[in-house]
Specification:
Blueprint lengths: L1 H8 L3 H18 L4 H7 L13 H5 L1 E3 L7 H6 L1 H12 L6 E2 L8 H14 L10 E5 L1 H7 L6 H15 L2 E5 L3 H4 L8 H8 L4 E5 L1
Parallel strand pairs: 2-5, 3-4, 4-5
Antiparallel strand pairs: 1-3
Length: about 200
Amino acid sequence: AFSRALVAARLTPKDLEYLSHWLSIRAEHARHVSFGERLRSSPGIGQGWAYGYTPTLDRFSRSVRLAREDELHIIAHGGAIGELEEALSKSEAANALLIGEPGVGKLTAVKGLAARIRAGASTPELNYRRVLLLAMEDVLGAGTTFGGVENVLGRVFHDAEYAGNAILVIEDIELYLVPGLATHLTEAFLPFLRSPLMKIVGL
C-alpha cells in the first residue's frame, strides 16, 4: 500500500530524502530547548553594541532572515550553503560570487547560511556576524541628493568596515561592476573588495 501511494504521488527517492530531512528539521524545532542550551548558543550580552553605530548601513540594508516557507528549499541547497560557508571562512578578506540563472536559489543559499550564523552554528570566523541585503536601488536613488552614488555607497561600506562584523549581500552585482553600464560603480567597490573588515556576497 505504501509503495502504491508513492507511485500515485509520483515521488522519487530524492523527494523522500528531502522529506525525511524536512521532518527531522521540524522535529528539531519542536524539541524543547533548555535554558542552558539557549545560553550556550547566544552571542553574548552586548555583543551587538560592541560593533558601533552604523546609521548609513542600517538605512540602506535589511537583515537576511529565513522565513518558515524557505525551510524545505534550504534542504535542497545544503551543498551550496556549505560551499558558501567554506569560501567566506577561508580568510578575513574572503568574498563570494554565486552564479546561476534567476530562480535557482542563490538568495535561498544565503538565507540558509545566515540562519546558521545567527544561531552560532557556522564557523568561528562567521558566527554572529550580521548578514545584510544591500538595497542598491535606494543607494542609486539617494545619490541624487547626497553627493553622488559613489559617496553614498562609500559611506555604507565605511559603516560596514567600522562595524567589522558585516556580510553584505548584493543582488545583480554585475550591474555595478561591468564597464559601460549606466550603473557602473567599480571604482567605488574596489577598495572594499580587498578589505579584511567586511565581506561581500554577490548574486
